What we know:
about 130 residues, about 20% strand, elongated
Amino acid sequence: MIDSEDFNLTTTELFQQALSQSQEQHYILRLYIAGTTLQSVTALQNIKKICEQHLQGRYELEVIDIYQQTEDAIAENIVAVPTLIKKLPMPLQKIIGNLSNTEKVLMGLNLVPKNIIGEESNEGFPSSS
């Protein structure tokens, strides 16, 4: 049920509320890579940095090389690498690319409310229309 007080929250209060909720959740992530290609290595470095800064002690990161574990990639319908999959908390989310756009990754992991990012600019984000 929606509390009537929720309608009076400012953007800052909504951000703080979302942040406090995300600080309690444990994240299970899978990163699909293709060997030691530049994109794969960059994605691994980027997600490790993001996890240590924003999820320290609250995440599991499994790295799967599609060259060595092809069946896993097929089972997850991986069509491009690198691909990060957020298994938990729900909903499941896939992020494709080298994960260099930190804001987009944080949004995909639900660590930053979607209405906070892009208020000033939607550059680099898909349109909702």
